[in-house]
Design goal:
InterPro entries: ADH-like_C, ADH-like_N, ER, GroES-like_sf, NAD(P)-bd_dom_sf, QOR-like, Quin_OxRdtase/zeta-crystal_CS. Pfam families: ADH_N (PF08240), ADH_zinc_N (PF00107). Keywords: NADP, Oxidoreductase. One of its GO terms (molecular function) is NADPH binding. With about 325 residues, the protein is an alpha/beta fold. The protein has two domains: about 180 residues, Quinone Oxidoreductase, Chain A, domain 1 (Alpha-Beta Complex); about 120 residues, 3-Layer(aba) Sandwich (Rossmann fold). The protein contains ten helices and 16 strands. Strands 3, 5, 6, 7, 8, 15 and 16 form a seven-stranded mixed sheet that branches. A six-stranded parallel sheet has the order 11-10-9-12-13-14, sandwiched between helices. Strand 12, helix 7 and strand 13 form a beta-alpha-beta unit. The chain is globular and about 60 Å long. The relative contact order is 0.15.
């Protein structure tokens, strides 16, 4: 019988259980996928703790790669034997094998390994929609990006360099600063000992930046606003330090700032759009402009340990489970 990580109540990592699960045949529009790698994302912690509610008991995870074992009636985009990845669809990626909607599956190019693909599905596609859709970068801009040594951040460092964008990245330690620089981040601010907005103004000769990509949230909100040019854009794409609450009057005081809180589902659908995003991402990988492999791996039964490592903020890059 196959196994999966399930949780029956919200709480700490200890609520995650490695359980036997029933597996049915795929129905119309569905496929059965056997996973080879499963990505761990910070949003998984939000579901586990109840910040984002789910009906319980439930599975966890929305981001994995694997091989199609079978397809149901009406499925023509993928076939048994295809290597695929996905980042949308119902929770349940923390599993050995699962049945899921086939229309969220993305075929993987031969030149992209499972290890690399496991770091790209959610994280690489996030970099794509942030840089190419939410605030489309043309090249030549100077931007501020928080958490530059994280899973999305290291891909963003490389993507910014490929676009000809000067990226100012924030990190929490000198060790993470070295990792960010090695991946193409032009300027790195170590938040434990540097004032973010002050350094941004110094780097930009007092002008500030046209856009800040902020996945940290509460702890960096004021620094983000103080780093922006008049009529600049704050892209609030995460809240790892806590929710963001903004008085709109403050936005006027800070320079008529624009704020957006994007969600992947609104940028990666319909399916042709999702496939075009993936094509651009994979193209950069195949051209050698983005290199990405897991920084840490855990066996699937050790998902709780993976969550503890991610929550400790000591990780860099991507964390992946191996079924």
């Amino acid at each position: 019988m196959p196994h999966a990580i399930r949780f029956h109540q919200t709480g700490g990592p200890e609520v995650l259980r490695f359980e036997d699960v029933e597996l049915r045949d795929p129905g119309p529009g569905e496929a059965r996928v056997r996973h080879t790698r499963v990505a761990v994302n910070f949003i998984d912690i939000y579901f586990r703790t109840g910040r984002y509610p789910l009906a319980l008991p439930n599975g966890l995870g929305s981001d994995a790669v694997g091989v199609v074992e079978a397809v149901g009636p009406g499925v023509t985009d993928v076939k048994p034997g295809d290597r695929v990845g996905y980042l949308l669809g119902p929770q349940g990626a923390y599993s050995e094998v699962r049945v899921m909607p086939a229309d969220v599956l993305i075929p993987l190019p031969d030149g992209v390994s499972d290890d690399t693909a496991s770091t790209l599905m959610m994280k690489g596609m996030t970099a794509q929609y942030l840089f190419r859709q939410v605030f489309p970068l043309q090249g030549g801009e100077t931007i501020l990006y928080h958490a530059a040594a994280g899973g999305v951040g290291l891909i963003a460092c490389q993507w910014a360099k490929a676009l000809g964008v000067t990226m100012i990245g924030t990190v929490s330690t000198d060790e993470k600063a070295e990792v960010a620089r090695a991946n193409g981040c032009a300027h790195v601010i170590v938040t434990s000992r540097e004032d973010i907005a002050k350094r941004v103004r110094e780097i930009t000769d007092g002008k500030g930046v046209p856009v800040v990509y902020d996945s940290v949230g509460k702890d960096t909100l004021m620094a983000s606003l103080d780093s922006l040019q008049p009529r600049g854009t704050l892209v609030s794409n995460g809240t790892t330090s806590g929710p963001v609450n903004i008085d709109t009057t403050l936005l006027a005081v800070k320079g008529s700032i624009w704020v957006t809180r994007p969600a992947m589902i609104h940028y990666a659908t319909p399916r042709p759009h999702m496939l075009a995003m993936a094509d651009e991402l994979f193209g950069l990988v195949l051209d050698g402009k983005i290199r990405s492999t897991p920084s840490r791996t855990f066996a699937l039964p050790d998902a709780a340990e993976a969550h503890r490592a991610l929550e400790s903020r000591q990780t860099t890059g991507a964390t992946v489970l191996i079924p």
